[in-house]
Design goal:
- This protein has a single domain, classed as 2-Layer Sandwich (60s Ribosomal Protein L30, Chain: A).
- Helix 1 packs across helix 2.
- The longest helix is centred in the middle third of the chain and has 12 residues.
- By secondary structure, the protein is of the alpha+beta class.
- A hairpin with a 5-residue loop joins strand 5 and strand 6.
- The termini are far apart.
- It has three helices and eight strands.
- The strands form three sheets. It has a four-stranded mixed sheet, with helices on one face.
Length: about 200
């Protein structure tokens, strides 16, 4: 069965280094959201692009987090056009200590009650971290109508590699119980002898 074509409902590119959602903190008996100001600033970039009504129904969200490379990835030499030259051993994959799932939560929370009523509508999420070109760090967001159903269980299992379990370890033979220590025989004293 061929999947229906995706219908793009909303898309945006938010400039700036992608941020992760920070854990709530507790102070004086109250819950404090340390990401509140960052989410407001992030949403300010896309507030003017919001549709007239909140999106309804199940949604699919595709995210691309373009991270800025650190200076250690570049050599002192520059290209003839003046651009920085990337070192040959510079990593191609983003292995920074920023969890992709926390970046996803940040975006979904920032759009909550604006683009959609609740982020529980999002039933299909696809995200990727990659290095930005130059200083163009940003977050790309695309929202589609989610397929109904998104994928059949049999199709999902067909894409997964077979699970190979290691052979069970042989059971250890029970240790033989230790023989009890012999109790020394007590010699009876003849009648009338003094006690030791």
């Amino acid at each position: 069965m061929q999947a229906p074509p995706l219908v793009t409902l909303w898309q945006a590119v938010v400039p700036g280094e992608p941020k992760p959602l920070q854990r709530p903190r507790f102070s004086r008996g109250r819950v404090f959201d340390p990401s509140c100001a960052d989410k407001r600033a992030w949403f300010a970039h896309v507030a003017h692009t919001m549709p007239g009504e909140q999106l309804a129904g199940p949604l699919r969200v595709d995210l691309v987090f373009r991270m800025k490379r650190p200076k250690t990835h570049f050599s002192a030499k520059r290209h003839p056009n003046g651009r920085q030259k990337l070192k040959p051993n510079a990593p191609t994959q983003v292995m920074k200590r920023v969890d992709c799932d926390n970046q996803i939560k940040f975006v979904l929370d920032a759009l909550n009650e604006h683009l959609y009523a609740d982020d529980s509508q999002v039933q299909d999420i696809r995200a990727q971290k990659c290095w930005a070109s130059g200083d163009n760090a940003c977050t790309e967001v695309r929202v589609y109508t989610a397929a109904e159903p998104p994928c059949e269980p049999a199709e999902v299992l067909a894409l997964l590699p077979p699970v190979v379990l290691p052979p069970p370890k042989p059971a250890k033979a029970p240790k033989a119980p230790k023989a009890p220590k012999p109790v020394p025989a007590v010699q009876a004293s003849p009648p009338g002898s003094p006690l030791m």
